[in-house]
Structures are given as C-alpha cells and as structure tokens.
UniProtKB/TrEMBL annotation:
It is found in: Cell membrane. Residues 23-59 form the Leucine-rich repeat-containing N-terminal plant-type domain. One of its GO terms (cellular component) is plasma membrane. Pfam families: LRR_1, LRRNT_2. The keyword DNA repair does not apply. This is Leucine-rich repeat-containing N-terminal plant-type domain-containing protein. Keywords: Glycoprotein, Leucine-rich repeat, Membrane, Receptor, Repeat, Signal, Transmembrane, Transmembrane helix. The lineage of its organism: Eukaryota, Viridiplantae, Streptophyta, Embryophyta, Tracheophyta.
Length: 1104
C-alpha cells in the first residue's frame, strides 16, 4: 500500500517536472483565453508547459498557478468563469486591458481564498463592484482604479454593496486604490469605514471618487498611512492638523479638492515625506517653512493655490528635490541663490507669481531639464554666470512675459539638449547671435521684444526647427521667404510686425520644396502680393496676411490653399478691390474663419465658403442689399459682420435661419425698414446684435424670447420710435444696451435695473420724459443698477430732481468695487481662441462725440446733460470715486456745487455748464489731479477761481458766463480785501455809501451835458454816427480787456448781476454784424468784493 502511494507520488512529481503545471489548471487557462476576443497570448498553446506561458508563475513544489499577470496585453472580451478554478492564485493582475463595458465577474471570488493581491485597474470594467471581493479574507492589496486613462473612463461604483460593506471582509488590507470608482460618501462615512475595517492600512488612494464633506477625524486612527491620495474630490474643507502625526507619511496628494484655510506648515517637516501635491486649490493658503537638511522631499507641487510669501533661502537644503512647481501662486521677492544647490532638480516651475530681481547665476553643472519662470517681474539679463554652460540636460527654457533686457547670450542657443526657448514678451534688445549648427532647438519664440538688426542665418540651418516666432520686434532689412527651404520640419512661422520686409523670389521651381507649414503669419511684412509658394501648401490651417499693401484681386487659387485643411484665412487691412472667381462663388473653399475686413472690395456681397464659423466683410465698399440666400451658407456660423459698408435695403428675415449666430453686426450702413422680430425672438440665440447707425424704422420688437442670451444690444442712431419693450427684462445676461439717438417715447425704464449684469445703459437723444427714479421696493432696500458703469440719458426731456438714491446704488462706480482686473467689455465668440468682439458706444466729452470701440471695464461715466433736471446736485454723487466723466450741463440745476465732488479722485471730465448753480467754486475740486476737462461756464458762480491742482491748466472758456467770478484765467482780477487808503484804514467804512457826493454829481452832470450835445448831433448826421460807432468799437477792442468789458456773442445782451433796472432798452442798428457793448456802470461794494453793475447795454455791429 505504501509502495503504491510512493509510486503515485513519484509519477505526479514526474508529470509536474515534465509538463510544469497541472493539467486541470492548464485547461482552465486555455478556457480563459477562449473568452478573450483579442490578446497577445500566442505562447498559450496546448501540450506546452503553462508555467512557462506569458504572465503565468507556478509554485515550484505543487505546480499550482499562483501568479497570473496579464496586464497591458490588449485583452478584450470577457472573463471566463474558469479563472476561478485557479484556486491557488495569490496574485491576479488584469490591469490596463480593454474589457470595455463588461462587468467584473460577480461570482466565483469565494474560490480564490488564497488571493493576496488583486489588480483590475484601468481595464474598462463597468458596473457595481461585486460583493464577492469582500470575501477575499487574505487580500493585502486591492486596485480597482480606472481614473485618468484616456478612453478608459470607468463606470465602476460602490452602491450595493457600499464602501463599508466592501471593506468589512478584507480587514488585512495594506494597500487600497479605488481611483475613479464612484463611492459617493461623506467624510465621516468613508473615513469611519476605513478606521473600523482596515486598521493596518498603509496606502490609500481615492482619486475622483465623488467624496464630499471633509475629512473625518476617524481617519487619524490609521497611524500607519504612508500614502494619502484624495485628488479630484469635493472635500471643501481644511487640511487636518492630525496629518502631522502620520510619521510614516511619504506621499500626500490633495490636488483639486476644494481645500481652504491654511496648510499646516509642520507637514512639510515630516522626515519621510517625499511627495506633496496640493495644486489647484485656489482657496488654500500657506507659506513655505525653513527646510532642514534631512528633508526627503522629492516633489513639491503647490501650483494654482493661494500660497504666498518669500521663497526661503533654506529651499536649497532639499537635496533630493526633483520637481518644484510653485506656478500660479502669489510668491514674491527674489529667487534665492540657493535654488541652484538642488543638484537633483529636474523641473523648476515658478511661473505666474510676483517674483522680482534677477535670475540667480548658475555656478555649477545641473541636472535640471525644465526651467519655467514665465509671467513674473524678473528683470536684468536672461541667464548669467559661467554655469550656463553646465545646463547640459536642459531641454526647455521658458522666461516669457517678464522684464528681461539686454541681448540674448549665444550660450543659450548652443546648449546641447535645448529644444524649447520661449523668451517672448520681454524687453530684450540687440542683435541675435550666430550659433552652432548642432543645436537641437525645435521651438523658438522671441516675439514681442525689441530685438534689432538682421536675422542670423544659423536660424535657417536648424533642421529640427518646428516653431519659429519673431513677431513684434525691430528687425531691419529684407527677409527672403526662400530662406525657410532648409527647415523641412517647420510647421509654424510668425514674422508679423517684426520690422522685416518679406520678399519672394520668382523661381517657381522651388515652390514645391517649401516645408509643409500649418500656420503662417506675415502680418505687416510689407507684402505687395500674395506669395505664390502658397499654391503648393496642402497642410496649411492658418494663413494671416493682414495689414500689408497687397493690391488688386484676391486670386481664385487662394480658396484651395490647404486642400481643405484651411480653417483660418485673414486677408484684412489690405488694398484688395475685388474677388477673383465666377460670381464671387467661394463654394469650393472650406475656410472656417474668413476675415476680409478693411479692404476696398466693391460690388455686391460675395457668397462665403460653406458654413464658415466666422465671416467678417466689414469696412469695405460693398454696395448692395443683403442677399436673401446668404443664410444658406451660415448653418454653423457664429460671427457675421457686414458693418461699415454701403449696404441698403431691408434686413432679410432669412437671416433668422442662421440659428447658431452669436454675433450679428450690420452697423453703419444704410439699411431701412423694420427690425425683423425673429432676430430678438424665439429661434435665434444671439449674444450680440449691433444695428447701430442705419435708417431702421418702426418700433423695437416687443416679444424678446424668455431665455434671452443677449449680452449686447446696440440700436443707436436709427429712427426707431415707440416704447421700450418690457420683455428686455428677460435678458438676464445683458451687459450693454445702447438705444441712443432714436425717437423713442417713454418714461425712464427703471425696471431695467433688475438686470444685475447691466454695465452700459445709453438712452441719449430720444424723447424720453418724466422723473428718473429707482423702482419701488417693498422690502425697503433697492439693489438695482449696481453694476452700471456707463449711464447716458442726455438730450431727452427728463425732469425733476436728480435721484440721490440712484447715485448710492451705483456700486460699480465706487472704489470699494474696484477689485476686477482691467479688461474690455465685449464677447468671445470662439471659445478657447482670441477671437473677440468689442462693443462700440458713443460718449460726449467737451461737446464732442467720441466713439469708444474698446470699452475698458474701468471706464465709468454719467451723462445727464441737456434735460430739464432742477434742484440741487446731490452730495451722494461724491461716493462715486471711480467716476471718469460727469456731465450735468444744460439743465436747470441750482444751488452750490457740492464740495463732495472733490472726492471723485479719478475724474477726468466735469461739465456743469449752463445751469443756475451759485456760490463759490469748492476748493476741494483742486484735489482732482486727473481732471483734464472742466466746464463751469454760464452759471451764477461767484468769488475767486481756485488756483491749485489742475485749475491753472484750464482756459477762460471753462468759467465764462459767471459774471461774479474773478481771477485766473479770467481777465477780471479779484479785488484785494484791504485796498483802502492809509488815511482811511482806521475808520469804519460803510459798504455802500448812503450820502450823496456832490462833487461827483456835478462832474457827472457836466460830462453828461456835453455828451448829450454830441450824441444829439450824431443822431441827425448818419455818416457821422457810423464813424462814431466804428471809432468806439476800435477803442473798446483795445481797452476792454483792461476795463472788464467783454466781447459778446449770441444776442449781445449782457445782464447785470443784480438784474436789469427798469427802463432798460437794447438798441441795435439793422444790418449790423459785429457788436460791442457800451456800459453805464456804478460801483458797489458788497462783502469785500467790488462789483460792476451793468445798468444798460447798447450794442452796434461793424458794417465795414
């Protein structure tokens, strides 16, 4: 019996030795392979040793399969249940395969009781994680992740069972990776489940698991954690202080978690910490500590967070640091010299901070591969120090958007591994050096500098060069386009506004040898013709030849450039006069963006290529009506501009069929008829409608769609009438509403104040009437018009007092609201591009109308001029200290100028002319240091004109028409307060004498009698009278400036300050032209001021 047992045992061991694995397990593996649609398992063949198959490892004693690793084998299909016959498996790895849409097998897992490591990550499994996995009691490592792999978006979820149920049976776990699995649990739930079920957990990775509600305190019990990765969840919490107690922590990844508060600085000091990533948490603040020499940090990534402060000198103690990414933070100060002590550093990114000073000079060879310090305030030369030559491994240098100056050193171009050199948007000057032809550079962008001289020929011997931009510099000389013939890999070339004049040789034989360029920009290169080599460019996607002097026809072959790949063609700002091709038919082209604006194109509007994304024909001389069939070509068009042509006729209703339009600009033409209601109604989805400066009639369409997306409506300068449609309140995103210069008749539309996004409201030059007030609010508070920045209701018939409450509501005009960066009001009509539509409005400064095309959001103005407002100027207007322009002229305002206007410290233009304002000019107005336009003319102001601030720069026209004003710049000097004779200085003097002075009376009678005889004779003698008038006028022209007399205009009347006396008569000869006034005056003293009171005026005009 024993002998028989030994014989069977020997036979079994012989079979294992010969065949390597047990037949049943080989059969199970072959069944498993049959379930796969595709795999790389060619070695899995019958009658072979399965222990030698790819991915299979057997136990040396028993022959059982214990390790099955089929990761990254491109396996697709399903998993056969025979897998679960491999009951001795300890390791199963099916990661990075293609099981798209298939679930993880739900049964059989209880047979794999020996399994310690299970990895099904990034293989496209879908559905519920099976409860059977929780029966794997010996499991030490579990990885079901699938987050972040393109094309392998996992739909795994833990709902039934949930996260806690999964963990209950696998309490021996040390490693748990569930990235991308939908757990949908709060902080207390998932942290509590981990603390209860996996007390010995060491590595935890739950990226993008839909976790929320913070990090529970129960997580602090897992004191053995060395890896914590919670990236991409909505934790919206602070970083727990108890992380400092995780002494084994080596990896901490909390990026994009909505973290807030301050990052515990002591975490940086953990001795085993190698990786810290808290990027993309804009509300997370913190600063860097003083690092010690024993720090193990290898990667420190704080990008796009709110970290700030100086970079400590001790950063040089991080001897193991390989990655330092502090980009898009708020660090300031200088880059410490010690940063180049980081001899292991491979990537340095300090871009988009507020760093200043120089880039520290290199002192020794470095392993750094990438240096990115773009978008700071770095000054001085690019790189200095002998160590620059030691950057032998540097592949990318990005210092763009700084204040670097001086020449570019030759050593940069000669660095052996450098491939990307980005120095654009600096102040670099001098001539580019010649350099070694051995350079590997493939991306050079030196645009927007002050580089001079000629282009070095070595640039055109860089055989690997793919991108070259030299735009916006001061180069000189000619650039032969044939120079790029040797750059066989060149795909992007931008020489725009570089100072170079581009030329093309006439050798057509070389045209086909040009590199296949994808983007070519030759803006402002003094071209006089379109380069002919473009006929052979079949891969070009962007061609920009704008702002040159190209004349004649746009050739027909231009529409086939790129062989269907052309998506952006810009021929604007040239001198083209016509378009070559039969009936202007562009249908053979496929341009997505076609820009022909600012040429001299004439005739009817040409039909565009089919379905362009953007079409700009503005600023030409097209003279026709808009074709009815134009909309057939606009099925996917977002932008259409036919502005500033000579178009006539009505706007065709068919344009409403272009339902994708976001911007429609037909302004500055001669269009007539009514506005098609469909442009503002259902069916269209316009963001910008600009019909200004046409001859449109009728009313504004009343039925504006409920889900209105308008950001700009500009109907200025037409002949529209009627009321403002109340349905405008449906436009909740409206920023610009310009209805000026029409014939609208309505009351003030205070209901527009409920549009919280409204920035610009222009209703000037209409027939609007009544008071201006805010809508009634039953809750007691009013928040209307808070974002308003430009408010123009001038030249209407508004009346009543100025609305003091309104000025309190204009929060956007107050400095407390000036937290936005400077930008222009407009609309991006192509997302992820620079295609931008700028709104245009008209404002009035110093009586002149000015068009503003690029409206900065910092420009704030109020124009209530030429209405019938009365009452006093409210003091509350002084709160608008961001105001640039204030015009209240030509109203009936009275009372003093409020001194609070002196608080408008940003004011550049102030016009209060032609009102009934009285009192003195407030001295506080001298605080307006930016004031360049001031008009207080034709009021009743008195006293001395202030002399400080900007006042000495204003002319007398700013103050004329105020008879009791004196001082510079007027010719009327102010009387000194103590000008009495010494003998009378100690005697009390009455301001107005009541006793007659007989000396002056008799003298006056004598003078009057003689003058009467002279005038009597002149009245009979007509020729003598004319001679006399001319003589008086000539004399007064000489003496008037010294005698406080003035040349008048208008009707010649000069009113006395106190009012005309009874019996006043105006005598004007018929047919007269020039006039001067002869005054009878009396002097009075009133409050220490001498006044000239005008009793009568006789004006005669020169007939000479």
């Amino acid at each position: 019996m024993v002998s028989s047992y030994l014989t069977l045992t020997s036979l079994f061991l012989y079979i294992v030795f010969i065949y390597g694995c047990l037949p049943d397990e080989r059969s199970a593996l072959l069944q498993l392979k049959k379930g796969f649609s595709f795999s790389k398992l060619e070695s899995w063949q019958p009658n072979t040793n399965c222990c030698q198959w790819r991915g299979v490892l057997c136990d040396g004693g028993s022959g059982n399969v214990v390790h099955l690793d089929l990761s990254s084998q491109n396996i697709s299909g399903s998993i056969n249940s025979s897998l679960f016959n491999l009951t001795s498996l300890r390791v199963l790895n099916l990661a990075f395969n293609l099981f798209y849409g298939n679930p993880i097998p739900s049964s059989g897992w209880d047979k794999l009781g020996n399994l310690t490591h299970l990895n099904l990550s990034n293989s496209g499994f879908q559905g519920q994680v099976p409860i059977g996995i929780s029966h794997l009691n010996n499991l030490v490592s579990l990885d079901l992740s699938s987050y972040g792999d393109a094309g392998m978006s996992s739909l795994l979820e833990l709902r039934d069972p949930d996260f806690e149920a999964l963990l209950q049976g696998i309490s021996n776990l040390r490693v748990l990776y569930l990235d991308g699995v939908n757990i949908s649990a709060s902080g207390e739930e998932w942290c509590g489940a981990l603390a209860r079920s996996t007390p010995e957990l060491q590595e935890l990775s739950l990226e993008a698991c839909s976790l929320s509600g913070g990090i529970g305190i129960s997580l602090s019990k897992l004191r053995s954690l060395s890896v914590i990765d919670l990236e991409g969840n909505s934790l919206n919490t602070t970083v727990p202080d108890f992380f400092v107690n995780f002494t084994s922590l080596s990896v901490l990844r909390l990026g994009y978690c909505g973290l807030e508060g301050f990052f515990p600085k002591d975490i940086f000091q953990l001795k085993n910490l190698t990786i810290v990533d808290v990027s993309i948490n804009p509300m997370l603040s913190g600063s860097l500590p003083d690092f010690t020499m024993d720090s193990a940090l290898e990667s420190l990534v704080l990008s796009r967070s709110n970290f700030s402060g100086f970079l400590p000198d001790t950063i040089g103690n991080l001897k193991s640091l390989k990655i330092l990414d502090l980009s898009n933070c708020h660090f300031y100060g200088k880059i410490p010299y010690s940063i180049w002590n980081l001899t292991q550093l491979m990537r340095l990114d300090l871009s988009s901070n507020n760093l200043t000073g120089l880039i520290p000079p290199f002192q020794s060879p470095s392993s750094v591969v990438e240096i990115i310090v773009a978008q700071n305030q770095i000054s001085g030369p690019t790189l200095t120090g002998y160590g620059v030559r030691g950057l032998q491994k540097l592949t990318e240098l990005d210092l763009h958007s700084n204040s670097l100056s001086g020449p570019i050193p030759e050593t940069l171009f000669n660095l052996p591994q450098l491939r990307t050199l980005l120095l654009w948007q600096n102040q670099l000057s001098g001539q580019l050096p010649e350099f070694s032809e051995a350079s590997l550079l493939n991306n050079i962008d030196l645009s927007n500098n002050q580089l001079q001289g000629k282009i070095p020929m070595s640039l055109f011997r860089l055989s690997g060069l793919e991108i070259l931009s030299l735009a916006n510099n001061n180069f000189t000389g000619f650039f032969q386009l044939n120079s790029i013939l040797l750059l066989k890999n060149l795909s992007y070339l931008d020489l725009s506004d570089s100072g170079l004049s581009c030329l093309e040789e006439d050798d057509s034989s070389s045209f086909s040898s040009f590199p296949k360029i994808a983007t070519l920009k030759l803006v402002g290169c003094n071209l006089t013709k379109i380069p002919l080599f473009l006929m052979f460019q079949d891969q070009i996607t962007t061609l920009d030849l704008s702002n040159n002097s190209i004349t004649g026809n746009i050739p027909g072959w231009i529409w086939s450039v790129g062989k269907g790949n052309l998506i952006n063609l810009n021929l604007s700002c040239n001198l083209f006069t016509s378009v070559e091709g039969p009936s202007f038919n562009f249908s053979i082209a496929s341009s997505m963006v076609l820009d022909l604006h600012s040429n001299k194109l004439q005739g009817p509007i040409p039909l565009p290529p089919p379905n362009p994304i953007a079409l700009d024909y503005s600023d030409n001389k097209f003279s026709s009506s808009i074709p009815n069939n134009l909309s057939l070509y606009l099925n996917f068009t977002l932008f259409l501009s036919l502005a500033r042509n000579n178009l006539s006729g009505e706007i065709p209703y068919s344009l409403c069929n272009a339902t994708f339009l976001s911007v429609l600009d037909l302004s500055n033409n001669g269009l007539t008829g009514a506005i098609p209601p469909c442009l503002m109604g259902n069916g269209m989805d316009l963001n910008v409608l600009n019909l200004r400066m046409n001859r449109l009639q009728g009313s504004i369409p009343p039925q504006i769609r409920e889900k209105c997306n308008f950001q700009t409506i500009n109907l200025n300068g037409n002949r529209l009438e009627g009321r403002l449609p109340r349905s405008l309140v449906n436009c909740h995103a409206l920023e610009v509403l310009d209805l000026g210069n029409n014939e609208l008749t309505d009351t003030f539309p205070n209901w527009l104040g409920n549009i919280s996004s409204l920035l610009i409201l222009i209703l000037r030059s209409n027939k609007l009437y009544g008071p201006v007030s805010l809508p009634t609010n039953i809750h007691g508070k009013n928040f209307t018009f808070q974002e308003l920045q430009i408010f123009d209701i001038s030249s209407n018939n508004f009346s009543g007092n100025l609305c003091a409450e309104c000025f309190c509501n204009f929060k956007a005009m107050m400095s407390s609201n000036k937290d936005s960066v400077q930008s222009a009001v407009g609309f991006y009509y192509l997302k992820f591009t620079t295609n931008y539509y700028h709104d245009m409005i008209t404002i009035t400064i110093k009586g002149f109308q000015m068009n503003l095309q690029k409206i900065l959001n910092i420009y704030k103005s109020i124009d209530f001029s030429n209405n019938n407002f009365d009452g006093e100027i409210p003091a509350s207007i002084g709160n608008l200290d961001s105001l640039y322009l204030l015009n209240l002229s030509r109203n009936a305002l009275r009372g003093p100028i409020p001194h609070q206007l002196g608080y408008l410290t940003q004011l550049e233009s102030l016009d209060l002319s032609e009102n009934h304002l009285d009192g003195e000019i407030p001295m506080e107005l001298t605080n307006l240091t930016f004031l360049s336009v001031l008009n207080l003319a034709y009021n009743n102001l008195v006293g001395k004109i202030p002399e400080g601030g900007q006042f000495p720069t204003f002319s007398n026209t700013s103050f004329e028409g105020n008879e009791d004003l004196c001082g510079n710049p007027l010719t009327i000097p102010c009387r000194k307060p103590n000008a009495e004779s010494p003998s009378a200085s100690n005697k009390p003097v009455s301001r107005v004498s009541t006793e007659p002075s007989w000396e002056y009376i008799f003298t006056g009678m004598g003078f009057g009698g003689g003058l009467a005889m002279l005038i009597g004779s002149l009245m009979v003698w007509e020729e003598g009278r004319k001679w006399h008038y001319n003589w008086i006028d000539d004399m007064l022209e000489t003496l008037a400036p010294f005698s406080r007399l003035r040349n008048t205009c208008g009707d010649g009347r000069v009113s006395d300050v106190e009012g005309k006396e009874d019996g006043y008569e105006e005598l004007i000869d018929a047919g007269t032209r020039r006039k001067f006034c002869v005054y009878c005056t009396k002097l009075v003293f009133f409050e220490d001021v001498m006044k000239i009171q005008y009793i009568s005026c006789e004006c005669h005009l020169d007939e000479r």
